[in-house]
Amino acid sequence: MIKAVRGTRDLLPPETALWNFVEAKAREVFRAYNFQEIRTPVFEETQLFARSVGEETDIVSKEMYTWEDRGRAQSDKGQSLTLRPENTAGVVRAYIEHKLWERGLQKLYYIGPQFRRERPQKGRYRQFYQIGAEVIGPPSAGSESPARDAEVLEMLATFLDRLGITGWTLELNSVGCPNDRALFNEALRKALEPVVAKMCVDCQRRAVTNPLRVFDCKIPEDQPIIDKLPRISQFLNQPCRQHFDEVQAILKATGIPFTLNDRLVRGLDYYTRTAFEFTHGGLGAQNAILGGGRYDGLSESLGGPQAPGIGFAIGEDRLVMSLPQSANAVAPQPDVYIAPLGAGMNREAARLARELRGEDIVTELGDESFRLKKSLETASKMGARFALIVGENEVKAGSFALKNLASGEQTSAPRAELARMIRNSVIASRVQIAPENK
RNA sequence: GUGGGAGUAGCUCAACUGGCAGAGCACCGGACUGUGGCUCCGGACGUUGUGGGUUCGAUUCCCAUCUCCCACCCCA
Length: 438
Description:
It is a single chain. The chain has helices at 15-32, 46-52, 58-62, 88-97, 146-162, 178-192, 201-209, 223-227, 238-254, 298-301, 316-321, 345-358, 372-381, 392-397, 415-426; strands spanning 36-37, 43-45, 66-70, 77-83, 106-115, 127-136, 168-174, 259-260, 272-280, 288-294, 309-315, 336-340, 363-365, 386-390, 399-404, 410-414. The protein is of the alpha+beta class. It folds into 2 domains: 15-176 and 236-327, 2-Layer Sandwich (BirA Bifunctional Protein, domain 2); 336-429, Anticodon-binding domain (Rossmann fold, 3-Layer(aba) Sandwich). Strands 1-5-6-11-10-9-7-8 form an 8-stranded mixed beta sheet, sandwiched between helices. A 5-stranded mixed beta sheet has the order 13-12-14-15-16, with helices on both faces. The two termini are 46 Å apart.
């Protein structure tokens, strides 16, 4: 049997309804902040990711799906292509390619699959889905303002609240300018030198490869040592510090709760200044539902104009896992099930179905070969509100039997009346795909 | 990439020390020729993840492999 490949999965109904609910809510909330959708290709030139995400990151160094495309002629060498491991690079590439800076501040969101070749585990897949957004533009359009950071964070808080997700935490930090980080990195290396021998093996490795990651250590014995290490906050220059202070001030003004976490470091090279993560318990080791930050130098490093930006990516798979229990996927139910009864009745049933569907009534159609008992059984099993019986008697009389499957009540009505009768009692009480959260 | 756990019917799970692969739910049919839910009766259900090995005999023991789960690494 051929199965979905490792780390990929099928999303089946009724769970897909949950995904649609989440995506519809995202579009609705993002729209209120005047974001518009962008769709970029799922694969790009490998160079794009190498130059933006960072050559040395795990993503680029070992997790990308990369292949060499065929050239024009058989003998031609093709270019190296890669399935996107994240979407910010693609958006910034499009920003540069289409000269979007000519249109002022860009507020763009995307929804789509991303690909990383990692070992799968709960909340981590090789094809996973991200809902993300970017605010990017020339500095003259206000793209660098801390107001943009706060606006994005507030939008995320609103989005999670509107999904009914409770118990999230916003963790906030500033990783400063590249220059601040270089100084900090050096200080960190120096501070680690005398103590690293006493730390866990992972930390000893991190101290060499990526000292920042030492702060991620969860070993209790190492914590006293880590607590004494220098913090990035001590190395922020004046503009970076002011920027960060203002982000916090606006968040307080808008009533968005956050926790400062000066151990929060982001994995990708392009991040500057504001870095954040929304975490949620009950997700296991992968407790981050979303992460993001500012990337003021990204456009230039890709050969574009100066275009500061801030963005985030939500792990949709993880988001769906953190939905409240009340949002359990329920199979949507048809309004009416048409039961053709006896030879030749499929034709009349098809005409009726077409009429009802034309009135936006969700209609399921049985088959004339079914016995009535089976039709009714099928109808109630799928949760239909009504069964419409289409037999010879009805066709002769020009009046059809309409049975309310919940009450058992049965009436008879001419075809012209059917749509109205069904709609009246059905539309208001259609089962919601997921609960409205106040 | 590393370490650990688990794979038996569509689903949830049994099967003692190696001795005929089972139950509940779901599914299909009938009791009931045009009236569902309840009840009763019957039916179908399997390459025990896959491939090898040991054995008279393997779901059970051994090896390999695949997938999922947990953790690490890292990230969404």
